Amino acid sequence: MTLPTLRIGRLKSILAALAGLTLVIGLVITPIENKFGRATTFSDTSILSVLGVTMFGIVVALVTVELFRSEQLFYWKRTVERFDRIEELLKKLEKEQGFNLKTNHESKLL
Questions:
Q1: How far apart are CA 49 and CA 51, in angstroms?
Q2: How far is 38 from 69, CA to CA, in rounded Å?
């Protein structure tokens, strides 16, 4: 159960890092635009658009991967629980029949 908690913590730290990076880039670019006015090429280039789309894509990908992992963990956990129930039923049947299925099967092979 600690593994999903670690993944969620990692997702939160990555999202926080992306938010911090966005803030830092905004704090750096705003004074440059104010100082140089129209001399900057930020209004003519697509650097900020590409960075924004890339960061949005990273966030969407991280959330998608986390949801997929959570879904897979749920199905694996459910499968293991079913196998445990089947094993318990087999042990119960062995006790009711009065012999060990493994021992009986192994003696037939010899």
A1: 5
A2: 47
> 8-54 pLDDT, tens per residue?
677 778 778 878 887 888 788 777 777 776 655 555 576 777 777 88
The domain in which residue 6 lies consists of: 2-109
Please provide the DSSP assignment of 58-96 as one string: HHHHHHHHHHHHHHHHHHHHHHHHHHHHHHHHHHHHHHH
- Per residue in 53-79, pLDDT tens? 888 888 888 888 888 888 899 999 999
**Domain total in the chain:** 1
pTM: 0.47
Separation between Cα atoms, residue 28 and residue 48, nearest integer Å:
12
Q: How many CA atoms lie within 13 A of 34 on its CB side?
A: 6
